[in-house]
Amino acid sequence: MLVAQNFQQNKEKIKGIDIHYEYYKNADAVDRPVLTLLHGFLSSSFSYRRLIPLLTKAYTVVAIDLPPFGKSEKSNRFVHSYQNYAEVVVELLEKLSIEQTVMIGHSMGGQVAMRASALNENLVSKNVLLCSSGYLEKAKQSLVYTSYLPFFSVYLKRWLYRKGVKGNLINCVYDPQLIDEEMMDGYIQPFFNESIFRSLVRMIRDREGDLSSDELKQIHTPSLLIWGENDRVVPLKVGKRLSSDLPNAELIVYEKTGHLLPEERPRLIMKDIERFIHM
């Protein structure tokens, strides 16, 4: 881990809300691209806690909490669409005077990374997509209409809490022994803020569908796709389809690995990222 003076947590006002980010500056990495970490749905930068100490030994790293997750503001005014997320990411990096970056996106973060690279291909030199979301359609109109009912956010909260944090994590990892109290506490913390559920209701309405095959074929940014063979959240068949649709993509599959790649295989990911960056 880098020494304390090279690490800062901060918030930047973008599109009217506070965006939380962690900035790990490595003075010895001036000739290397900055790495930007984007987490998945119902997650935060916490999901990169095992990978960040490895990456920061050789790179400057920015880890962003996409709203309403992590420590970013939970607002029902913000438009929670992937395109808006991509614009937030690009604007934040510009505010930090970062001219080029390699995007590392997990799950939902992969969709945001691809949209950011389409938005500013000069900024994003490469994408690393970890079990990226793909081919999900927009929420059905019936669900969107239902979301306007009073107390829908209460129903949503109960639905999310039904399995509990451990039950949800078990579905995301290959080996349940990986789950401990620290891990469960880290993933549950943002949900103690009741405002997040109203923001999630807004996200149901705002989230456009994932990028289509035709849109993916227009993204020429070099992309490394890393997948868990046993991913039950975003199955490997999605990764194979993405690697076929993206014009400049490579797919790597890890055995005995689930959906939470940054938690399950941080050292393997670090090794593959190093190779990919220096290709």
UniProtKB/TrEMBL annotation:
Gene3D superfamilies assigned: alpha/beta hydrolase
Q: Sorted alphabetically, which keywords does the UniProt record give?
A: Hydrolase
Q: Give the organism's phylogenetic lineage.
A: Bacteria, Bacillati, Bacillota, Bacilli, Bacillales
Q: What are this entry's molecular-function GO terms?
A: hydrolase activity
Keyword Hydrolase recorded: yes
Q: What is this protein called?
A: Hydrolase
Q: Does the keyword Zinc apply?
A: no
Q: Which residues form the AB hydrolase-1 domain?
A: 37-267
**InterPro entries with a match to the protein in the record:** AB_hydrolase_1, AB_hydrolase_fold, Epox_hydrolase-like
